[in-house]
Model the fold of this input.
Amino acid sequence: MPENCSITERNHPQGNKQRNIQVTAKVLFGSVHAISRLKQEEKAAKENKRI
Done:
């Protein structure tokens, strides 16, 4: 797992497990940017097929 991500599990008295996920803003927004770019490329590819 990358240094800037962490997952911890906590056991509660009721027996439920809760996961606490911490992600840095750089990782989060980098992923959002990558997804947006992928969608733009897919849209451009669809438009090129129509021509």
About this structure: The longest strand covers residues 5-11. The radius of gyration is 19 Å. The helical segments are 25-50. The chain has a mean pLDDT of 74.
